[in-house]
Amino acid sequence: MVYYFTSSVIEPPATVYVGKDKFENEELIKFGWDCDFHADNLSSAHIYLRLATTQQWDALPTELLEDCAQLTKAYSIEGNKKDNVTIIYTPWANLRKEGGMATGQVGFHDTRKVRLSPSYCSSKSLALRSSVSYSTPSCFQTRKILVSTRTNAIINRLEKTRTIRPADELPAAKDAYLKEQRREKRKEAEKLKKEENRVLMERRMEKEEKERAWEELQRGEGGRSNEEGFDEDDFM
Fold it and tell me: Residue 22 needs a FRET pair 20 to 30 A away by CA distance; which of 38, 176, 213, 229 works?
């Protein structure tokens, strides 16, 4: 079974989900396309944020990151009991699964895609309000969030939205997502082609307008266009 949560801190609300155990986490790894969150150097469930087509994994709102980080901490048996837990997040495509790994375990294809979050909480009021702090960016692209303490208000809000659905829905969901991605790419390609045609048409019309203006100028000065030809008297 897969647990689904709704984060209403953004509009439209975001979907966050997690496998019931490490065995179902294998299915999530296999049929994912989202942003993966898990506790660093601790036994941890993998929390997945389902990205909207307009969202980028490295430009997520602070409030949404906090929801995901808090939920990741809460679903780590060891991390839930500790303070100052580091949460790593990275695109699903960066997850690496090899045959020799334990059930539920993953690595990264490119460790440079895991970096410290640039969303540094320099505001004192924000630091007091939030239990999550964000480190300054490094030269890498993998991101880490430090969760200082568990915030029960966030966990309780998310748990109230929890629904349970079978893991065998994941392949169909992945297929629907890929179809939507292809449709969006075709739509974008058609938009670009239409714009290119518009620019070409404008340039052609502009050229024709300049040619007409030149011919009219020649006539106004007593000249003739090539198409009008010349009379024999012109050469007498």
Answer: 176
DSSP state of 78: T
Share in percent of the chain as helix, strand, coil (round to 5)? 45, 20, 35
> Which two three-digit tokens encode residue 31?
């049929």
Sign of the CA dihedral running 182, 187, 191, 197:
positive
Could you identify the residue written with the tokens 């969030």?
145
Q: Give per-residue pLDDT as tens, 104-130.
A: 667 777 666 555 554 433 333 233 334
**Structure tokens given for 65:** 């990151």
Which residue matches tokens 């060891």? 78
Q: Are 98 and 106 in contact (CB under 8 A)?
A: no
Q: 91: pLDDT confidence band, cut at 50, 70 and 90? A: confident
Pairing of β 95-96 and β 47-50:
unpaired
State if pTM tops 0.85. Answer: no
